[in-house]
Amino acid sequence: VNSNQDQPDDGAVLRVAPPAQRSAGYDVIVRAGSLNAIGTVAAVVAPADRYAVLAPASVAALYGNAALGSLAEAGLGAELFTFADGEQQKTRQTWAELTDAMLERRLGRDSCIIALGGGVAGDIAGFVAATYMRGVPVLQVPTTLLAMLDAAVGGKTGIDTAAGKNLVGAFHPPAAVIMDPLVLRTLPVEELRSGVAEAIKHGAILDLAYFRWIEANADAILAADPAALQRLVARSVGLKARIVAEDPFEEGIRAILNFGHTVGHALERESGYSMRHGYAVAAGMAAEAGIGEAVGVTERGTAAQLATVLQRFGLPAAPGAGGAAASALLDGMRLDKKARRGLPRMTLLRAIGECAPDSTGSWTHEVPAETVVACLQGDARGTDAV
Ligand SMILES: NC(=O)c1ccc[n+]([C@@H]2O[C@H](COP(=O)([O-])OP(=O)(O)OC[C@H]3O[C@@H](n4cnc5c(N)ncnc54)[C@H](O)[C@@H]3O)[C@@H](O)[C@H]2O)c1
Ligand SMILES: [Zn+2]
Predict the structure, then answer these.
(1) Which H or E run contains 41?
(2) Ligand 1 mean position to 290 CA, how many Å?
(3) Which of the two residues, 241 and 112, has the higher pLDDT score?
């Protein structure tokens, strides 16, 4: 603030200079065995007095020691804070418990948080980091495929409330992200499939060749073959990072990463969040491709191509909603953060590998409620590919 002592205090407009760029960018390390490099990476990108490893109980049991061991080996003081597993735990209460536990242990402003676990851990630990002492650095160490491909890169953190998912949170970019494809070998296959849905999304919105590669390598990916997963993670993260760098605060092109998510989030909500994120996104992509075809934006046959690949991975390829369910889903979409004027908005493909802006240049399209409901019900207008 530029204040001038000589001026009378009779009302003034003072200008606060724009804040410095909140993040100068960060490295994402994708390498087998990199879990053992947490300490050396932390020492370089986030030097701190103490490190708090925040992990759900299941992940702490599997990889907590490796993380703590790596930090100790680098001569860094660290302690582990755990919380119960599951989306139901992504709440203000867990945020408060973790924050209080850290305060009790007298971790100061010169601390750093290591978020170890799936997307739930990344979101909660990231939000604790965003708010602890007004913000301490966070190192994201995602251990699910979904968290590697989606949650850990981009800086979004937050919690769920009774009114909906992720409605409270902050942008808090990590100091670095460490992805070790070897940890995916202990991941239940449904969780692996759930993550693949996001990779299919990246191919569908940006990269036809990648889309084809995923389809051709389905067996190796589902078998958690380390080389296949290394390529999958690196390629997807590269695509997502490019978009996030272009639009860090989701004001434009970043919206395309929400392909499949307008319907997907509504499906998750309707299921009381018992449906896995990737499964909901898979069904959502199939539905939104159908909606795109119905409104004439998406090339005919795109929904069918998507469905083939989704089925190859055992993912849902249709929302499977009955009449009542379809209008309940539509109500859910009206609550979506992208909705405007009470109408759902969604990213639409032009074809596999490419998104289509609307007539105003926006990367989300307003779509008529009737079309959405018809496509959710599998109405012929939405699904008669070719
Ligand atoms: N911030 C973002 O940009 C963003 C993006 C996408 C999703 N998300 C959030 O991510 C969450 C979903 O993430 P998720 O699918 O990773 O779920 P999750 O975090 O609940 O993890 C799924 C399950 O796998 C277990 N697990 C994790 N790693 C394991 C491993 N290596 N081996 C064995 N078990 C392991 C977990 O303990 C958990 O039970 C949602 O809350 C969603 O809102 C956030
Ligand atoms: Zn997602």
Answers:
(1) helix 38-45
(2) 28
(3) 112
Among 34, 95, 146, say which to mutate for ligand 1: greatest number of ligand atoms within 8 Å of CB: 146
For residue 223 the two structure tokens come to 């078998």
C-alpha of residue 379 to centroid of ligand 2, in Å? 26
CA 120 to centroid of chain Cα atoms = 10
**254, two tokens:** 């970043």
pLDDT in tens, 67-104: 999 999 999 999 999 999 998 999 999 999 999 999 99
Using 50, 70 and 90 to split pLDDT, how confident is the model at 13?
confident
CA distance 179 to 147: 10
Q: Give the ligand with the smallest distance to the CA of 151.
A: 1
Compute, in degrees rounded to 10, the torsion defined by CA atoms 61, 181, 173, 364: -120
For 50, phi then psi, to 5°, come to: -145, 155
Question: What contacts 249, CB < 8 A, 6 or more positions away?
Answer: 171
Q: What six digits make up the tokens of 209? A: 């060749």
Distance CA 315, CA 130 (A): 34
How far is the C-alpha of 24 from the C-alpha of 11, rounded, in Å? 37
Q: Which residues are near ligand 1 (CB < 6 Å)?
A: 56, 58-59, 62, 85, 87, 90, 117-121, 123, 143-144, 146-147, 150-151, 154, 156, 165-166, 183, 186-187, 191, 194, 277
Residue numbers annotated as active site: 134, 156, 198, 240, 250, 254, 258, 261, 265, 277
pTM: 0.89
Measured in Å, residue 197 CA sits from the centre of ligand 2 at 8
DSSP letter, residue 74? T
Ligand 1 pocket test, pick from 123, 184, 185 with the greatest ligand atom count within 8 Å of Cβ, gives 123
Short-list 192, 200, 376, CA closest to 282:
200
Rg (CA), the chain: 22
